[in-house]
């Protein structure tokens, strides 16, 4: 069992040490060189992770595998991805990985271009997304011939997967299927991006075209939007 320190969250030093140990083992595995996870764990427990238990160190390594999975990167064999980890920890692990040159694949990269966003989201949607995407708290506004916003394709794909082919507004099946067999649903930001809304799962829903237009154009759009908040528990007013 962890000491009392285990109840107050992981420090940056602890997370950085964990990530560095993980990357060391991954490099050895990729090079076909032998290594012992238990030996690396022992080094961590004798150093930066002295306040942690063996079980917590192992679980943190599995959390790192989960982050690698979301980045479409190869993880260490045997460290089965453990996705039950808070978004704040995921964000910190991703930051540390980025500082060490481990970046997400192009498919995961946010973009302002609608065609590129849709292509990336469709590809991501073809496989289960096991970890809730963090999204973008304040989408960057990009001015071309019209105003666009940088959006996260993982958020779009995850929202559609959660809808399971049904409009989250009216509850009816998607009006048709695309060539790839996926049901056609549009992802709507409940608080519009132009109103400083976020591109996060707590502000996005999958709607049929009718319900999507209802959110933007109908005389009862405000009432309809309030209904979405009461119907979909993940939504958080912004």
Defining key terms:
single chain, 238 residues, mainly alpha, 2 domains, two-stranded antiparallel sheet, 4 strands, disordered N terminus
At a glance:
This protein is mainly α.
Main sheet characteristics: 2 strands, antiparallel
The strand line-up of the biggest sheet is 1-2
Distance between the termini: 39 Å
| Strand segment tally | 4
- Write down the overall mean pLDDT: 87
The count of domains is 2
Which residues form runs of ≥5 with pLDDT under 50? 1-7
Helix content: 40-55%
- Shape, per Cα inertia axes: elongated
- The tally of helices reads 8
Structural class: mainly alpha
Order of helices and strands: HHHHHEEHEEHH
What oligomeric arrangement do these chains adopt?
single chain
Strand content: 5-15%
Query: What is the radius of gyration?
Result: 21 Å
């Amino acid at each position: 069992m962890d000491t009392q320190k285990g109840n107050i969250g992981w420090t940056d030093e602890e997370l950085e040490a964990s990530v560095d140990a993980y990357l060391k083992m991954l490099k050895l595995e990729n090079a076909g060189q032998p290594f012992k996870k238990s030996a690396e764990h022992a080094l961590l427990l004798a150093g930066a992770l002295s306040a942690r238990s063996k079980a917590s160190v192992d679980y943190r390594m599995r959390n790192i595998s989960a982050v690698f999975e979301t980045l479409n990167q190869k993880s260490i064999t045997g460290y089965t991805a453990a996705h039950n980890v808070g978004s704040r920890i995921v964000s910190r692990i991703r930051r540390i990985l980025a500082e060490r040159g481990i970046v997400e694949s192009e498919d995961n990269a946010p973009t302002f271009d609608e065609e590129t966003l849709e292509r990336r989201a469709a590809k991501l949607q073809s496989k289960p997304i096991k970890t809730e995407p963090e999204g973008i708290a304040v989408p960057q506004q990009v001015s071309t011939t019209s105003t666009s916003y940088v959006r996260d394709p993982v958020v779009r794909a995850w929202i559609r997967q959660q809808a399971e082919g049904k409009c989250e507004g009216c509850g009816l099946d998607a009006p048709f299927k695309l060539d790839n067999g996926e049901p056609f649903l549009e992802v709507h930001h409940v608080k519009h991006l132009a109103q400083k809304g976020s591109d996060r799962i707590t502000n996005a829903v999958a709607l049929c075209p009718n319900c999507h237009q209802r959110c933007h154009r109908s005389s009862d759009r405000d009432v309809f939007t309030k209904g979405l908040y009461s119907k979909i528990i993940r939504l958080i007013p912004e």
